[in-house]
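Entry 12.
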Amino acid sequence: MEQTETPREPSAMSRGTAIAYAIGLPLSLLGLIFWPAGTIAWRPGWVFLAVLISGFGASALVLAWVNPIIYRARSRFQAGTKSWDKALLAVILPAMVAVLPVAALDAGRFHWSVVPAWAVLSGYVAVLAGIAVTGWAQAMNPYFEPGVRIQSERHQRVIDSGPYRFVRHPGYIAALFLFFGMALALGSLWALVPAALAAAVLVLRTSWEDQLLRAELPGYDDYARRVQWRLVPGLW
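Predicted 3D structure (tokens):
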């Protein structure tokens, strides 16, 4: 059916909310890493923060240039977000956040596990790859929201360019890189446990979202026939 109404883009984040994010997020990261570690002098924690902030900072600068609407789309959960998605996110988000304090308790305070240098380096590679792929997906997809829904008021359409040429959910494979990469970069094997929990529920979310898009987003079923893989080319 032809769309006649002008798309209604999400409203901008309020100034107060933007300031709260700008102040609260860095403070939260400091608390999640250094309080469990027991010391502000834990050097691996500072290296991790420097890499994380540099990576996401560079990604934010690129997105502000090529797809600034993404900040409005991702600033909040929009009306119509599926209830089952909120339930899944109630598991995914705490598990993802738990990676940091568990890693800090392990590697920074109690030294429960020993992670070789090559594994730590591979963790950083995974983190940077996750940031890069997430940024690429967001640059190409203006409908990249935090919650699962059909964005009918924005005249949502299928995006099949950029990373979407290879997999249907590149943002999710990027999230998997980040989950496991953060644990290894901080030098913790125990942090792989919450990372694995977040990953398992995310894979379930991928399947349910795919079913929704096939059923309700025009053109997605044809797209899914062209791009067969949800997350990993040649595997799934």
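Annotation: Residues 83-110 form the longest helix (28 residues). The chain is about 65% helix and 0% strand.
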